[in-house]
Amino acid sequence: MLALRGDAEERRHRVCLSHAVAARQGGGRKIELDAGGDAPMTLECRLAHHAAGLDAPATARRIEGMPNEAIPQAYLPRATISVAAQRPRFQADLSGADPAD
User: Fold this and answer.
1) Mind spelling out the 3-state secondary structure of 12-75?
2) How far apart are CA 14 and CA 35, in angstroms?
3) Strand 41-45 vs strand 31-35: parallel, antiparallel, or unpaired?
4) Is residue 75 one of the residues assigned to a domain?
5) Which residue range forms the structural domain that includes residue 50?
6) How far apart are CA 67 and CA 71, in angstroms?
7) What contacts 45, CB < 8 A, 6 or more positions away?
């Protein structure tokens, strides 16, 4: 991530990590981003990429002027956890020791 950030900033891109972001359409083809955090700031850009992950739908709803049909549907993962009732009969030895010893 550090190398990606360095490459982006070398090309005059800005990277904001772990910030709450609200966006609105600016004049013309510009987007204004209000980024919170310890040092809040307003950024103006032509293109913004937000890696929101599971929070993408909520982030898209916070963008003023975003049409509802452009907001992605939330797909939440479902995890199933199982626990073995008994100890397995065969267990891999990852220590590297010779089993003949």
Assistant:
1) CCCCCCCCCEEEEECCCCCEEEEECCCCCEEEEECCCCCCCHHHHHHHHHCEECCCHHHCCCCC
2) 12
3) antiparallel
4) no
5) 18-70
6) 7
7) 30, 31, 33
CB 15 within 8 A of CB 5: yes
Helix H or strand E encompassing 96: none
User: Mind listing the pLDDT tens digit of every residue in the chain (101 residues)?
Assistant: 788 788 888 888 777 776 677 777 666 778 888 877 777 888 888 877 777 777 888 888 877 877 888 888 888 777 777 776 776 666 666 665 565 55
Residue whose tokens read 């891109």: 13
Count how many domains the chain has: 1
What's the rounded Cα separation, in Å, for the pair 42 and 34?
4
Label the pairing between strands 63-64 and 41-45.
unpaired
